[in-house]
Specification:
With 441 residues, the protein is of the alpha/beta class. It has two domains: 7-55 and 341-439, Aspartate Aminotransferase, domain 1, CATH 3.90.1150; 63-339, Type I PLP-dependent aspartate aminotransferase-like (Major domain) (Aspartate Aminotransferase, domain 2, 3-Layer(aba) Sandwich). It contains 16 helices and 15 strands. The chain has helices at residues 17-22, 48-51, 60-72, 84-96, 110-127, 148-153, 157-160, 180-183, 194-207, 231-244, 265-269, 296-303, 324-339, 342-358, 389-401, 423-439, and strands at 29-31, 34-36, 42-45, 101-107, 135-139, 173-174, 212-217, 247-251, 275-278, 290-295, 366-371, 376-380, 404-405, 407-409, 412-415. The strands form three sheets. It has a seven-stranded mixed beta sheet with strand order 4-10-9-8-7-5-6, sandwiched between helices. A four-stranded mixed beta sheet has the order 1-2-3-13. Strands 11-12-15-14 form a four-stranded antiparallel beta sheet, with helices on one face. It is globular. The chain starts with 16 loop residues before the first helix and ends with a helix. The structure holds pyridoxal-5'-phosphate (PLP). Pyridoxal-5'-phosphate (PLP) is lined by residues 51, 109-111, 114, 143-145, 218, 222-223, 251, 253-254, 279, 290.
């Protein structure tokens, strides 16, 4: 038997592996607002793990629910079978979604949810006799995961450009509703963004509405650097989609389950998409789960399909779709959100985070500060010779000197504390970020 004792056996995702392996960062335990490293050092979690541990870490009811499920029903196929956990969870998620979105297709991640939305949108138009509609319009800096469909609909250059031809019909992106010349250091949601939605008209003129199936956007661009928008922007997008018969897909993988003070940002903006994707917070990060919540109009079109009822309506799914352990984790997570009022708490704390993060204005190297929901982005001036270097240094400084785990995209620090964060936790996070900025070279 070969013995391998080499740190490089684990090829880390979205990580500069050579730099990491030279100076690894290990997390070995987590509880509440904190991670712990192998020496027992406490590290404040400024990013809810990876935008997912909204109820904080180490929540016993979730762990207990997972353990119970593992003993009771370790696995059940959901191809041709169902189980009580999946049924209960789908009903509960549908009840949290806007009216008219009553059907949940489960997957295991946000990326798979992006694939699901793309496939459902295209297949829907085939079902209703409009098969010429195949394009899905994304948005600049959009992030919809790392599968080919996710990166194709996404609008982040580094995620797309290394991988050759992507998916036909996914190369068009709406502009990000942001103008660096006029919108730096905006507090809260920027306004008067309708013209950025109106850019859809240009794509209609270019391609013809009859080739466009859907538009996919995040309520705020998270991984792209925390860029919010406003109610009127989303209402304009909805109106344009209605005008041309496009489906509107909200990717709420980050914004779902409390990050915007509601179960979904759709509720905050009073805009009902046709497909709403979720993942991350649904199970508090304790078990992989994601899904697409689909409108009754779409679901009914599939169910009305021609041929006998022995026909499969959607040729799509995953071995672990609605895995019993993930369903149990999600049910326990939703109980915590409800019982602790965490969505309401997040809504209240938005302003606290906004005031705290904007106090960093004027700190050296800070190029912009944005906040959206209970999240914020601090854009660091890039080193012109090495873009991304300061972002990586920020992670290292936060970890080694400020006892903090932060998330960085490029040179932007993204803060998304667990929703349980108190005012003093936020103050600590901002002090830590200030300490990092002061030491960056
Ligand atoms: C908006 C959005 N969509 C999709 C994804 C992909 O989710 P996953 O990493 O679970 O595949 C992410 C992940 O950060 C995301 O932020």
């Amino acid at each position: 038997m070969r013995q391998i004792n080499d740190i490089s056996s684990f090829w880390l995702p979205f990580t500069p592996n050579r730099a990491f392996n030279a100076e690894p960062r290990l997390l070995t335990r987590a509880e509440g607002m904190y991670f712990y490293d192998e020496t027992g050092r406490k590290l404040l979690d400024a990013c809810a793990g990876l935008w997912c541990c909204n109820a904080g870490h180490g929540r016993k009811p979730i762990a207990d629910a997972i353990a119970k499920a593992a003993h009771e029903l370790d696995f059940a196929p959901t191809f041709q079978f169902s189980h009580p956990g999946a049924l209960a969870l789908s009903q509960r998620i549908a009840a949290l979604a806007p009216e008219g979105l009553d059907h949940v297709f489960f997957v295991n991640s946000g990326s798979e949810a992006a694939d699901t939305a793309l496939k459902v949108a295209r297949a829907y138009f085939q079902k209703i006799g409009q098969g010429s509609r195949f394009r899905v319009i994304g948005r600049e800096k959009g992030y919809h995961g790392s599968t080919i469909a996710g990166i194709a609909m996404g609008g982040i250059g580094n995620n797309r450009k290394h991988f050759g031809p992507l998916i036909p019909g996914t190369d068009d992106h709406l502009p990000l509703p942001y103008d660096a010349a006029t919108m730096r250091f905006t507090r809260g949601e920027p306004q008067n963004l309708e013209k950025y939605a109106d850019a859809l008209e240009g794509l209609v003129a270019l391609h013809g509405a009859e080739t466009i199936a859907a538009v996919i956007v995040e309520p705020f661009a998270g991984s792209g650097g925390v860029y919010g928008a406003s109610k009127s922007y989303f209402q304009r997008l909805r109106a344009l989609c209605d005008k041309y018969g496009f489906l509107l897909i909200f990717d709420e993988v980050i914004t779902g389950f409390g990050r915007m003070g509601h179960a979904f940002a759709a509720e905050r903006y009073g805009v009902t998409p046709d497909i709403l994707n979720f993942a991350k917070g649904v199970s508090n990060g304790a078990a992989p789960m994601g899904g697409s919540i689909v409108s009754n109009k779409i679901y009914d079109a599939f169910m009305a399909g021609s041929g006998g009822t022995h026909n499969i309506e959607l040729f799509h799914g995953h071995t672990y779709s609605a895995h019993p352990l993930a369903c149990a984790a999600a049910m326990a997570t939703l109980d915590i959100y409800r019982d602790e009022g965490l969505f309401e708490h997040a809504l209240k704390m938005e302003k606290v985070l906004e005031d705290a993060v904007h106090s960093l204005k004027g700190t050296r190297l800070v190029a912009d500060i944005r906040n959206a929901g209970f999240a914020a982005g601090i854009e660091i001036e890039s080193d012109p010779k090495a873009p991304g270097r300061r972002g990586l240094d920020a992670i290292k400084l936060a970890f080694h000197e400020q006892d903090m785990v932060i998330r960085v995209g490029g040179d932007t620090i993204a803060l998304s504390p667990p929703l349980i964060a108190s005012e003093s936790d936020i103050a600590k996070i901002i002090d830590g970020v200030r300490g990092v900025l002061e030491r960056l070279t």
